[in-house]
C-alpha cells in the first residue's frame, strides 16, 4: 500500500485534546484518523450517526450566503428570470 501525506489546518487545542484522548485509548492521532477514513469508506458514509437536518441547514446557509446568487426585488423580476430561455 502506497502512503500519502496530507496537510490539514485544524485548531491547535482540538489537536492537543484529540492527541490526549487517543493516547489514553492507546493509539496515535494518525492511527485514529486512519481508522476514521477506513470506516468512512467501509460504510460509504460518516462512521457515526449525524443529525442530517443540521447538515442540510448548513448547506442551505452556505448556498443562501453565496455572493454569486441572483437576488430579486420583486416577484415579477423573479418570474421573468425563471421564464427566461437563456
UniProtKB/TrEMBL annotation:
Gene3D superfamilies given in the database record: Met repressor-like
InterPro entries referenced in this protein's UniProt entry, alphabetically: Arc_rbn_hlx_hlx, RelB/DinJ
GO biological process, one term: regulation of DNA-templated transcription
Protein origin, superkingdom: Bacteria
NCBIfam families hit by this protein: RelB_DinJ
Protein name listed in UniProt: Damage-inducible protein J
Organism: Companilactobacillus ginsenosidimutans
Lineage: Bacteria, Bacillati, Bacillota, Bacilli, Lactobacillales
Amino acid at each position: 500500500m502506497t502512503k500519502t501525506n496530507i496537510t490539514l489546518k485544524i485548531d491547535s487545542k482540538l489537536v492537543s485534546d484529540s492527541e490526549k484522548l487517543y493516547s489514553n485509548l492507546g493509539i496515535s492521532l494518525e492511527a485514529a484518523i486512519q481508522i476514521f477514513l477506513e470506516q468512512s469508506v467501509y460504510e460509504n458514509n460518516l462512521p457515526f450517526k449525524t443529525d442530517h437536518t443540521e447538515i442540510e441547514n448548513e448547506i442551505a446557509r452556505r448556498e443562501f450566503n453565496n455572493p454569486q446568487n441572483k437576488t430579486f426585488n420583486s416577484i415579477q423580476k423573479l418570474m421573468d428570470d425563471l421564464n427566461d430561455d437563456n
